């Protein structure tokens, strides 16, 4: 199934005050695919996602959804098509988990029409999918960082948009929960055809889960393509200033970046558990 929405940035620049952060970015999210945006801290990834979801205005260029500039699309229509999970979302004080996830349903509610069985179902499904159903009545304030992150992901899922942007959805999660969330987003992509774009800092998980990788440096796009094509030692040096080697991930056969660091280069066997 492909829903075929197209979300693109055309010669897009944006920033804060007179400071340009996103600097002339041209990109189109492959419809029905998973894209991952990588880049060093402060290079402009969050600003790009915020501009692509209309939270920050372009200073030049445009963000175009299905052929229309997003500033021309009615708010409700935009919110039922395009969802954003920001990097540091803020929950209203004291709100219960189920109520926060329920807020993801707001764009779907007709004027003067209250909550429907379909809303209930979407919330229950999202709570179950993210493994937080047993927290439904708890206050969001009293959750651990990882529990809270999964509740936010549940809210984004409940919104049930065809295009979903997520800014570091795996922060605060232990490795098992990171893999679980990325598997869940992949399920969503495969079953509903949701176009997903997310920022990830773990380059190896990014290379594994992305159909398409976008790499940014200082507000500009410096690489775009399949992970196997773009993840090279030269790119890792260009984007992160990191000396690293790139192997094949033995599980997924995608690029696996191993940083050299200054203290651990060693010529002994490279597999833990390998015969000496
Ligand atoms: N609301 C804001 N007002 C002013 N400057 C901001 C604001 N948000 C971000 N910036 C600045 O814009 C630059 C890019 O920030 P952005 O959050 O887009 O980076 P990022 O690539 O997402 O970084 P990280 O990996 O740390 O999340 C930084 O220098 C930051 O200080
Ligand atoms: Mg960020």
Automatic annotation (TrEMBL):
Main location: membrane
One MF annotation (Gene Ontology) recorded for this entry: ATP hydrolysis activity
GO cellular component: plasma membrane
Annotated SUPFAM superfamilies: P-loop containing nucleoside triphosphate hydrolases
Keyword Membrane in annotation: yes
Matches recorded under InterPro entries: AAA+_ATPase, ABC_transporter-like_ATP-bd, ABC_transporter-like_CS, P-loop_NTPase, Siderophore_ABC-ATPase
Residue ranges annotated for the ABC transporter domain, each copy included: 7-243
Segments forming a coiled coil: none
The UniProt record lists the keyword Nucleotide-binding: yes
Gene3D superfamilies assigned: P-loop containing nucleotide triphosphate hydrolases
Keywords: ATP-binding, Cell membrane, Ion transport, Iron, Iron transport, Membrane, Nucleotide-binding, Transport
Membrane topology, from the record: Peripheral membrane protein
Source taxon at top rank: Bacteria
One example of a Gene Ontology biological process annotation: iron ion transport
Localisation: Cell membrane
Protein name as it appears in the record: ABC transporter ATP-binding protein
């Amino acid at each position: 199934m492909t829903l075929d929405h197209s979300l693109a940035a055309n010669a897009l620049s944006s920033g804060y005050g007179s400071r340009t952060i996103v600097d002339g970015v041209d990109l189109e999210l492959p419809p029905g695919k998973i894209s991952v945006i990588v880049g060093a801290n402060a290079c402009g990834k969050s600003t790009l996602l915020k501009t692509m979801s209309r939270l920050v205005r372009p200073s030049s260029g445009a963000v175009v959804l299905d052929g229309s500039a997003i500033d021309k699309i009615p708010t409700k229509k935009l919110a039922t098509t395009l969802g954003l999970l920001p990097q540091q979302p803020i929950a209203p004080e004291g709100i219960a988990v189920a109520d926060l996830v329920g807020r993801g349903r707001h764009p779907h509610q007709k004027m003067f029409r209250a909550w429907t069985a379909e809303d209930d179902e979407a919330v229950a499904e999202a709570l179950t999918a993210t493994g937080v159903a047993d927290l439904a009545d708890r206050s969001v304030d009293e959750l651990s960082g990882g529990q809270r992150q999964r509740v936010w992901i549940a809210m984004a899922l409940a919104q049930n948009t065809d295009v979903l942007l997520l800014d570091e959805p795996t922060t605060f999660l232990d490795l098992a929960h990171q893999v679980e969330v990325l598997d869940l987003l992949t399920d969503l992509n495969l079953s509903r055809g949701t176009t997903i774009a997310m920022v990830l800092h773990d380059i190896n998980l990014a290379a594994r889960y992305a159909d398409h990788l976008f790499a940014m440096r200082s507000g500009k796009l410096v690489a775009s393509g399949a992970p196997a094509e773009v993840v090279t030692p030269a790119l890792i040096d260009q984007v992160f200033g990191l000396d690293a080697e790139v192997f094949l991930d033995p599980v997924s056969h995608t690029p696996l970046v191993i940083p050299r660091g200054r203290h651990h280069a060693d010529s002994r066997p490279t597999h833990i558990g390998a015969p000496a």
